[in-house]
Amino acid sequence: EGLIEFYGSFKEMFEFFCKNTTIHGTIRLVCSGRNRMKTAFWTLLLLASLGMLYWQFALMFSQFWAYPVVLTMSMDSEPKMFPAVTICNLDPSRFELVSEQLEQLERMAEESLTFLYGPKASARLSQLRDRNRDRDKDGAIRVQAWANLSSAGFRLSHNFSLVRMWDPRAGKKHSRVGFQLCNSTGGNCFYTSHPSGMDALLEWFRFHYMNVMAQLPPGLPQHQQHFQDLVYSCQYDGEPCRPSDHVHFHHPVFGSCYTFNSKGTDPFWAATKPGIPYGLSLILRAEQKEHLPLLSTVAGVKVMIHSHNQTPFLEHEGFHIRPGIATTIGIRQDQVNRLGGNYGRCTMDGADVAVELLYNNSYTLQACLHSCFQRAMVQRCGCGYFYYPLPAGARYCDYSRQPAWGHCFYQLYSRLRNHRLDCFQHCPKPCRESLYKVSAGTAKWPSAKSQDWVRQALRHQNGYNSSSSRRDIAKVTIFYRQLSSQAVHEAPLLSENLLLSSMGSQWSLWFGSSVLSVVEMLELLLDTLVLSLLFCLQRLRARRSPGGSSPTPN
Questions:
Q1: Which of 49, 163, 183, 352 could form a disulfide with 510 if both were Cys (CB 3.0 to 4.6 A apart)?
Q2: Which backbone phi and psi does 456 adopt, to 5 degrees?
Q3: Number of domain units in the chain
Q4: Would residue 168 count as lying in a domain?
Q5: What is the DSSP string of 241-302?
Q6: Is residue 379 part of a domain?
Q7: For the whole model, what pTM was predicted?
């Protein structure tokens, strides 16, 4: 008792607290003891302040646990590499092994065009088909390594004919064109249709084209086009490009493609200065040989600027270069850095993503979505989509083996587009991502006065041979507008330090006190608990002693 002098009653403890605490207003509960109205007023005022304080605390914690972010922007002037650039000639190849099926498909397309728009619409397509047949007879596009194979066992199906559907409420001026798809039992049929007959015909042609191309053996070598057949001239920073600077691949729709600086590790591609003279300058063949005119309807060159070690998804990004035009493309790099964790899902390298990528490049959102969709196709439809890589042991879809794969595919793809497929839940965005903003300018090239000597120079240096005027060549220059890049960082809108600071501000606003005042309140609660315990012990001892009486707390 000499070391710990405790209170004799709850009233004594409360009066001591009110007179000595640093919390404002509590002393009015003691000094106004004779005026009950003032005591009641200050009691209600303190309780209201306490309620407002904890209401503000609740709002702060609810905002903190929502994990909002704020974007901060900074400029980065560090040396950088030139981005990867992919170009495609928009001229898909006609493989010898399936040339008969492709010719039959073009005849079916002629019939569909005649049905939709009359015989004049298909006359030009018939001439192109005859020209392609003559070129194939001359051996212009042959795959010698597989010449002994045959896909005669495959036949194009006539069960997917194009039909015109009229809307009785809109009249004959408004119609849709499409073809019907049914499940394996012939039920649950629906039409995949378009308001434009051209879009419907392209969709119909590509559907049959995928079935034809699925007959090619998996190990079939790609049709190799010589680099000089697409690129007449290539220079970067005033230096000619080297054979090791580009990688070739073939796209089933966009034709023969080349990617420059795909890895981004060669010092040759270091960006030294901004401006047109220090960029990538290309003179390209933009002539369309019309191998498959219903598959590729755009003449020119497809160009896409993207990050290194990234698969170029040309069907989603990129732009077209028009023949007879000089195009200058200025680029600026933006870096996006996401927080991840509680502030949003993102991945550093895709190692923590449940979807196994089917591409051999770095993780991107599109690569994950394509891989997820392809695996869903193999699992639910029994075969793979022709435009995406295959998982191990799977085969591409064709209606000779899976007659109802089209019905399964279009339903599954509709679910993906409407975000009802769980691929978007499994595929987070990258935590670090480089984006390239472009601005382009165009001019006629070569001009009427210079086209003769330009063509002569290309003919002697690159074997260029054409009598057309500006319709088969194009020039494109890609350069950094400025070497400084803009970095966008996500930062917590309400961090732990800011939360504590806001709580302290609210505490000072409603009670005019500090952290030590909080300690005083905790001390009051502890004293109340100890005093209650002491009184309970005294009562227990009084009951055990004969004739004793227990004290009553005030």
A1: 49
A2: -65, -40
A3: 4
A4: yes
A5: --GGGEEEEEETTTEEEEEESSS---GGGEE-S-SGGGSEEEEEE-----SSTTT----SEE
A6: yes
A7: 0.79
